[in-house]
């Protein structure tokens, strides 16, 4: 059973930092790129960051570039999103998921990030 379990969210002041973690299971983690998404109230889910299976390439949405950093540990089947210089517009529920059509219907419960001004 494919599962994604996100954690690490919380309430932080503008300019602060949070570190999100995602534990994945039910598939060969090291074979897939991983992605972090977020969904703010009233908005569509958007892709925030991605990392290839061997950590060779990372990509970021323009809105988070230079502030967020994605990494992974293939030995532990985890992917992490380090978020610095947080802004109120970063407030959202954050989700992780593997890349690929097979995973399109698999979403975890997400982790809430709230940035106060």
Oligomer: single chain
Secondary structure class reads mainly beta
**Poorly predicted segments:** none
Q: How many E-type strands?
A: 10
The biggest sheet amounts to: 6 strands, mixed
Q: Give the DSSP E fraction (strand runs of 2 or more residues).
A: over 45%
Number of helices: 0
Tell me roughly what share of residues is in helical segments.
Answer: under 10%
Walk across the major sheet and give the strand order: 2-10-9-4-5-6
SSE run: EEEEEEEEEE
Radius of gyration over C-alpha positions, nearest whole angstrom: 13 Å
Average predicted confidence as pLDDT: 97
Shape: globular
In angstroms, what separates the terminal alpha carbons?
Answer: 40 Å
Describe this structure in words.
The chain is mainly β. 0% of the residues lie in helices and 49% in strands. It has no helices and 10 strands. A 6-stranded mixed sheet has the order 2-10-9-4-5-6, with no helix packed on it. Strands 1-3-8-7 form a 4-stranded antiparallel sheet, with no helix packed on it. A hairpin with a 6-residue loop joins β4 and β5. It is globular, with a radius of gyration of 13 Å. The mean pLDDT is 97.
